[in-house]
């Protein structure tokens, strides 16, 4: 395979990869390396190709701080999760731990409000299910899988009951 053909194929792949959502530098690096490693029969200077493509797409790489803000906004709206789960997901996306720690020191998350929004979006009326222990058990388990603490879940349920 010609080097120009390889570069154009990688460029198309990277452009498609970037078209779905903002990406961190780490995500793009992993993507490019995965694509290069799939071309086993060629002897390539992987580091050189990686640097060229990263330089070429540097304008489209989202900074870690901007990516954290975007990720938290998306999660808060579509799939609310606890602060700890968000940190874990962002680490998986390649955001540096230092940047994460700095951001989350200043970030105040009202997890009880997130749980209440979860109830509202799903049309869950706690009063209707208070006597259904099995339903409540499943609801609490679902929220705990999303990283919310039992005490926050209990407080949100209590607030929902008091509001009615």
Detailed description of the structure:
There is one protein chain. With 164 residues, the protein is mainly α. It folds into three domains: 3-60, no CATH class; 64-106; 111-163. It is 73% helix and 0% strand. The protein has helices at residues 3-20, 25-37, 46-56, 64-78, 83-92, 97-106, 111-122, 126-129, 133-145, 150-163. It is elongated, with a radius of gyration of 22 Å. 18% of the residues are buried.
Short description:
The protein has helices at residues 3-20, 25-37, 46-56, 64-78, 83-92, 97-106, 111-122, 126-129, 133-145, 150-163. It has 164 residues and is an all-alpha fold.
Instruction: Supply the helix-strand structural class.
Output: mainly alpha
The pLDDT mean sits at 86
| Strand composition percent | under 5%
Please give the domain count: 3
Shape: elongated
Largest sheet: none
- The helix count comes to 10
Radius of gyration: 22 Å
Residues in helix, %: over 70%
Order of helices and strands: HHHHHHHHHH
Low-confidence stretches: none
Alpha-carbon distance between the two ends: 68 Å
């Amino acid at each position: 395979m010609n080097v120009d053909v390889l570069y154009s194929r990688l460029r198309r792949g990277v452009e498609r990869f970037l078209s779905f959502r903002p990406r961190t530098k780490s995500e793009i690096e992993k993507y490019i390396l995965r694509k290069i490693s799939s071309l086993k029969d060629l002897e390539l200077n992987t580091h050189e190709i990686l640097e060229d493509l990263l330089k070429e797409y540097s304008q489209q790489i989202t900074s870690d701080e901007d990516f954290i803000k975007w990720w938290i906004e998306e999660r808060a709206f579509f799939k609310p999760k606890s602060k700890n789960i968000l940190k874990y997901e962002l680490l998986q996306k390649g955001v540096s731990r230092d940047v994460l720690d700095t951001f989350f020191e200043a970030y105040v998350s009202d997890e009880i409000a997130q749980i209440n929004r979860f109830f509202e979006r799903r049309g869950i009326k706690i009063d209707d299910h208070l006597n259904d222990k099995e339903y409540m058990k499943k609801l609490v388990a679902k929220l705990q899988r999303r990283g919310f603490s039992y005490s926050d879940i209990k407080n949100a349920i209590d607030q929902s009951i008091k509001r009615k």
